[in-house]
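Honest question from a wet-lab person: if I give you the sequences of every part of a complex, can you actually get the arrangement of the whole thing, not just the pieces? Trying it with mine:
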Amino acid sequence: MKEPFKIVICGEGGQGVLSIAKIIAHSAWLQGKQAVYVPYFSTEKRGGVSIAFAQIGDEPIPYPRFTKADLWVVMSQRAIPRIAEYLQDGTKIVANSFLVKDFSAIEKWKPYAIDAAGIAKNRLKKPRTFNMIILGAMLKLIPGMSKESFSQSLEKTFKDKYEKDPSLKELNEKALTIGYDLIS
Amino acid sequence: MAEKKFLMGNEALGRAALAAGAKALFGYPITPTSEVLHFWSKEACGPKGKERGLIFLQAEDEIGASFMLIGGVLAGTKSFTATGGPGHVLMQDAFSMAEAMRLPVVAYLNQRGGPSTSTVIYSQSEVNLACFGGNGNGYRIVYAPSNLQEMYDYGIKVFNTAWKYRFPTFLLGDGYLAKMMGEVEIYDPKEKGIAMIDPEAYMLEKKRVRPLEGLVPSPELEIRREDGVEYACFRNCLNYEEETLKVNLEIKEAWDAVAAEIVEHEVVGDPDAEVLIVAFGIVAASAKTAIKMLAEKGIKARLFRPITLRPFPDEAMRQAAAKAKRIVVAESAINQLARFVKDCLYGRVNVPLTEYARPSIGITPSEIVDVVAKL
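Yes, you can. This is the full assembly:
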């Protein structure tokens, strides 16, 4: 039995945790893979911690949750203890260093610290590209997902938005590439 | 045309109701089921929905919504509601009335944490409530889908079961199934050779194919004919103990006559396995993965999954249990599914039973593997 690739994302409500996981799963599915997504939803939204789970594989994935992750993404400091139990040997970590300052608890996993918020704000001048930078970085770490086919599936996901604002497509592509290239 | 889509469970339910030809949703929003209402309100207010005469009505609360649902059914409209948790509790008054009068109300129920308001997320602790809630004897049909595709498939089926057998019919999902997204094949039932059963009015002077006599328990129904006009008079408030006994026995008789036709179950895994896992819904999905993981460790395990929790697949359960040396009941509740299993096996099949009860929290495949491996 080949296990699916397991992703957990955690951050502050409003940072786009749920959207990122949803986009990753949907795009993988559009590329012909099996994928499921489930949020950890609660009564809090903004001001609380959000968690989302996504799995990508070649066989149908019956159960949406799991105990250990292959890719672990934290977007704020207090997200670290919240999802610490999902870490295992070999888990890859992406951390948003704009809000994560203390890496002591996750050092041994050699996290990729990327300042997605800083790049979005200062380099791209559009804070909302934050998500695309994170997605780009994640993409590099998920086996069997190419940047090209991911971009194509984004066009389907954001069809309506791209039609309304064609410049958004270019901006997203740029942010995605920046994020992708941050992981070496 | 059948089409594969990437959908949330709640949207699969909304689309199922639409495909089943449902006309009216009476409800009150509650997590984790609100998206069913979102979907339906959008449909009902859109041009196609207006053309089809779809109705969306948000009541003042779940008590109001569920009695509106009864009104919709009495008028012969294919109607449904969607709720969960405390909302599901509030609807028991109306569901009991539907049970008493053989009204085919349909409800999509997504279980959340309990008891009380608890978490809005997930549980399997509304089994007792869905099957036996209210002050009757639990003559409701309860289907428990196990994956997103089944949310759609059984989301359609509940309407046919309800209108064919005329018992309250529920789809019992949970917060994970409701909120997860994945692949779902959307189709028109006709493409699959499924004929949808038309609803019929109980009240109003409409033509009825199925007479009310022999359907509505006799003490609750009086048909008067005056000047060539037929008046159907209903009551669910009875004067004598003997009348109420008669109502209950007639409902039981009707139920016993069709229960064997309705029950559904699934068995997965090696028939020679010594361990039989019993689970339903999303936990059964988890158990299916666990069985594959156990096979890799050289441990044979089998899954018995009731698809209908009510009527419970007693015969099939006994047959599967008789072959096992050990039974493990895994559920996100304490002694709800397990009680059904014990009820079914008591005095007939004597196999030791282990309960893995994780109230209001999910059960992953690796947890099930650990439980079985430690036996």
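Two things worth pointing out. The mean pLDDT of chain B is 96. The two ends of chain B are 48 Å apart (CA to CA).
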